[in-house]
Amino acid sequence: MPTSASASASASSTTATGPNSDLLIRLNSPDSQVQLKALRELKNRIIGNRTKKLSFVKLGLVPAVAAILASKAQAHSHSDHDCNLLVQSAAALGSFACGFDAGVRAVLDAGACPNLLLLLSHPDDKVVDAGARSLRMIYQSNLAPKCDFLQDKNMEFLLSLLNSENENVTGLGASIVIHSCETITEKKALCHAGVLKKLVSLLQGSPSQRDNSLESLATIMKDNDEAVSEFVGCESGRALSSVIELTKDRHLRTRFLASRCLIAIRNTSSCYLQDMGIKTKLVHLLLELHDDPGQVGDEAPFAFSSLISQKVDLQKIALEANAIDKLYNHLQKNHLHPKRFQGLLLALADLCSKLESCRSRFLSLQALNLVSEALTHDSSDVRTAACICLRCVSRSIKNLCAGNFMNEMIVPPLVRLLDDPSISVQVAALSAVGNIVVDFTTHRSLFLQCGGVKQLVQLSRSMDSTLRLNALWALRNLMCLADYICKQGIFMELTASSLASLICDPEPFVQEQALALIRNLVDGCMNSVELVFAEDGIILDAVGRQLQSASRDEIWIQGLYVLSNVASGNEVHKEAVMHQLVPQADNGAQSLILKFLQSNESQLRIAAVWTIVNLTFPSTPNAFSRFVKLHNAGIVSQVKSMASDPCLDVKLRVKSALGQFKTFSDGST
Amino acid sequence: MPVRAAETSAPPQHHSGSNCGHTSPPPFTLLSVGQGFSGTQNVSSLQKEEAWRVNVRIQGCDLENGYLCGTMEALNVPMADTPVVTFWEGEIVDTKNYTFFTEKWEATHDDDIRHWTKFPSFSALLSRVEVDGGKSLDLSNYKYIFMRWKEQYFVNVGTDCGLTIAGFYYVCFSCSDGSINGFYYDPNSSPFQKLELKSTNEGRLGFSFSSYELR
């Protein structure tokens, strides 16, 4: 008897491994009644219980459930009993997948998706519902396969879902759009196929259809101005009005999704939703949604960030709406979910990214204490967000000069993050360090004491070009207006040969920062100029080579300022610059400096003119001989031709240079 | 004075409309980060002639927002044992972020005009400034940059040092030679204390430039 066999198996397995493996045996039972009962029991036991889900996944229950689904879905039997088995197996799989990536993985690995899709065309509505619900759970995870909308059959399938009378099926269609639609080509294809219009019609549907529609619309319209235009014009603007109206809906999630939809429209096409009323309303709504203890509250800071990011007008409105105080109050709560913690830090970062008034408010609340604590959080996302927040708040020369960041609370934990196992944390920490080391007081010694320079130098040699770039950026800022002792310390750590290789790094942005660093190195007291003559002038030669071979203005500007600063040194220094810029023998080659003086980029012309001013600086013994060389290379006449340069700074510096030239002409005649 | 009559005689262009054409002054290398200036501030009163040596260094410059900041070091201050360093912030009169009218710090329009007119380079602008603070002027190609510098805090001494930073400076920077002239305004201090600074190159045989970039 199947029943007694099952019972005995159950008894023995209970003794061996507990009741869980009994479930596996019953799911594999040849008696479909036993299977049905086991499915129901399984479903009830895993609902909302991640621990149970995980233990059942490990026990291999998912393939057993998928096998029941497969056998019944492919049998095309429509008996009540089989329908029940389909409903229960689909529901159990959906439960495994709901909000649990390991469950989704197991369901996908068991090959359940094609069979769940078969259920959508089943004549029994309950089966269709169960299949659609289960697939929706899967499509809410990033692990779900992407649907390629550019294939006609997939687009037809999607439209068939969205055109369904069944609410769960249309919901599935929306979930597939939200999950799979990424590129602008896909978004446009969806619009052309009429998906946007269909979604607009679903705004009038049930609460769940409305929410699905709002989220899908936001996905399709993000960065897609064609879709935004189509949407705004839809039903003579009634679609837009209804979304605006939905920001007042009684359901929290609907209000949230409507606001996200409006943000997508605003961020994509700056010509819509610009009136003060709607901007203020969105700011207040999103701040209010932060109060929700659930998913909406977790997601609200991210939506708020996307609303205010890079927009000074909205940041002002947010400041007036007390946003900094409100976000800070949320941040103060204990046991924040890491996602919410991350979101709040990023929202504060965006708020403080441009306006000094926001930064002042942030600092006055002592919010830095919380950011400092977040630097040591277990979650790497939170640590990254804390660094980004610190970077934005410290983007203020006023506060940097006041020494608000170079202190024991911030610097030691930040320096430790330079060694974080996560590269994204390291990059974010470097960007914060890059700002914080701009300190013109003696406080910068704290950074050195914490081993910051050693770390930066090590990262400047990383295989990862982003790390190299950011490390050099920080070292460049640290070097700016530093005293000789500090400069020498950094230089010894870096070494001349490694600086020379960084000037020739394969990445142009790294080259630029390396040159900017050396420019700062040779500024200030005269002794610092000597540093670039170490190791037989390997650095200066590399600068010269880079000026010859580079093809970007930014690199030329920094390289030329290195030479210009060196040229403000003594005779030996000036001659070394002449050697780099003006060919010794007349081999017909155009001198480098001539090329820069003729550049269309005024910043390059000004750097070039300063170099000439420094090379011909009066009362230096060999100034006249350099003037003659410059004259012979056609440089003096080039400078003379620039007396009416369109850039005022260039024009005035040319005037200075011509004044100096005149002293030589007077002396020589 | 380093100001040349020829340079002040050419009036700056006017905007074609009130809402357009406001452009930031171009970056001037002599007014960039790290540049140093030295000179004196005349603090004479009726009782005695007195001038303090002053060094200034630019530490931050954000032309887009009309912002400049730096430190000011007064060297032979009688009541202080050490040089007194203050941190100041500057408003650049670019007619976009700031006009010639101060609208704060106890300065009336009359005070503004009285101080600005002390600069010869201002005379070409006077008539338009009187109308609206100079809102309609385009100063982006003018050879002088007008600013207000307001000291914010003492860097190396306490507030009990017996000195005040209650007032602010009306400042004029000459783009031609990098000289700076200013007048200190504080209703409670001697009027028109003159600040005279020249660009320095700190022992170098030429000019040298640093840069940093905040992100």
TrEMBL record, chain A:
Task: Identify this protein by name.
Answer: Uncharacterized protein
Q: What is its main location?
A: cytoplasm
Give the InterPro entries listed for this entry. ARM-like, ARM-type_fold, Armadillo, ARMC8/Vid28
* Gene Ontology terms: cellular component: cytoplasm; GID complex; nucleus
**Low complexity bias spans:** 1-17
Q: Name one GO biological process term.
A: proteasome-mediated ubiquitin-dependent protein catabolic process
* Keyword terms: Cytoplasm, Nucleus, Repeat
Region called Disordered, residue ranges:
1-23
Subcellular location per UniProt equals: Cytoplasm; Nucleus
Automatic annotation (TrEMBL), chain B:
Short name of one Pfam family: Vac_ImportDeg
Q: Which top-rank group of organisms is this from?
A: Eukaryota
Task: Please give the InterPro entries that the UniProt record associates with this protein.
Answer: GID4/10-like
Any one of the GO BP annotations? proteasome-mediated ubiquitin-dependent protein catabolic process
Q: What are the boundaries of the region Disordered?
A: 1-25
GO cellular component terms, alphabetically, are: GID complex; vacuole
Q: Which family does it belong to?
A: Belongs to the GID4/VID24 family.
Cited PANTHER family: GID COMPLEX SUBUNIT 4 HOMOLOG (PTHR14534:SF3), VACUOLAR IMPORT AND DEGRADATION PROTEIN 24 (PTHR14534)
Q: What is this protein called?
A: Putative vacuolar import/degradation protein Vid24
